[in-house]
Design brief:
With 292 residues, the protein is of the alpha+beta class. The protein has helices at residues 30-40, 92-113, 187-191, 197-218, 221-230; strands at residues 21-27, 48-54, 73-80, 124-127, 131-134, 137-149, 159-168, 237-242, 258-267, 273-277, 282-285, 289-291. A hairpin with a 2-residue loop joins strand 5 (131-134) and strand 6. The longest helix has 22 residues, at 92-113. The chain is globular, with a radius of gyration of 19 Å. The two termini are 31 Å apart.
Length: 292
């Protein structure tokens, strides 16, 4: 995983079930392209789209996702929902974040064993609903959306799928994020050495495909148990941000958001958050941001 990587256009990749992978030197957004191609019926479930850089990468609530060239991973995977109820589809992002976090933590442990990892930076962990952090710094973002794939045959119903966009800060430098005005962590910071992006992506896709198969068979319950072991924030104070329309411009003011401060009690069996507000009320939160 720490070997020297090949040129980007030489990477050998595939999606789920040997579905094709498409590599682009530059894209506005892998997420936007995947949505457009799914709607047009130009791709099959399991397809993977990868960009070496994005000119308009976005995260949750239209926040900018900085995408320096030749250093990080920016990709979208079209996850088929066959055998998965639509009501359970949002839980896929939690399955993905935990699966990816386990891959990252394995890398961190290998680096620590080689005495190369940065032990002062903290452990790779997860934060509800689908953030992956080291310490309190997020370095992997996941953005998922339900899409419908246009069928090849006329008269057939569109096929639902999850278009999952992922951005990972792998080998980038602090200077790449100076314009954001906030600290950013990368896998290279965590591991103390550069990571082969091709091999990392191969591992992430293979791990996610196995995880989705397990989720299809057993539901979210096993993942909730694993999440509780990795989540370092259960029991801590936090702020639930509901109906958050925050952008880069109004991030600090919180304009357009309803914020409730209190204590994180637990993650429920269905993947929702159990939260105790400062006024004593206990709420079950299904969709929101969580600030620590």
């Amino acid at each position: 995983m720490f070997s020297r990587e090949r040129n980007f256009n030489e990477w050998h990749l595939c999606g789920f079930g040997d579905a094709p992978a498409f590599l682009f030197d530059t894209l506005e957004s892998t997420h936007s392209l995947m949505k457009a191609r799914a709607s047009a019926g130009d791709i099959v479930p399991g397809t993977l789209i990868v960009a070496d850089t994005q000119t308009a990468g976005r995260g949750r609530h239209e926040r900018t996702w900085a995408s320096p060239a030749g250093k990080n991973l920016y990709f979208n995977i079209l996850i088929p929902l066959e055998g998965i109820p639509l009501a359970s589809a949002p839980q896929i992002t939690q399955v993905a974040s935990l699966t990816f976090a386990e891959v990252f933590r394995d890398l961190q442990e290998v680096s620590n064993a080689q005495e190369l990892g940065n032990r002062d930076i903290g452990k790779v962990t997860v934060k509800w609903p689908n953030d992956i952090l080291c310490g309190k710094h997020k370095f992997c973002g996941i953005l998922a959306e339900l899409v419908y794939i246009k069928p090849a045959a006329s008269g057939s119903a569109p096929q639902p799928a999850i278009s999952m966009g992922v951005g990972i800060n792998v080998n980038s430098d602090p200077a790449d994020y100076a314009h954001l005005g906030r600290a950013v962590t990368t896998l290279r910071d965590i591991c103390g050495q550069s990571v082969n992006r091709e091999k990392l992506l191969q591992s992430l896709i293979a791990s996610l495909e196995r995880a989705i198969g397990q989720f299809r068979a057993f539901g979210i319950s096993p993942w909730v148990a694993a999440w509780r072991k990795m989540d370092q924030f259960i029991g801590a104070r936090g702020t639930v941000v509901v109906n958050n329309r925050c952008t880069d411009e109004n991030r600090d003011s919180g304009t357009g958001a309803i914020k409730k401060t209190g204590r994180i009690i637990d993650m429920n069996a269905d993947g929702s958050l159990l939260f105790e507000c400062d006024d004593g009320t206990i709420e079950t939160v299904y969709s929101a941001d969580l600030e620590i």
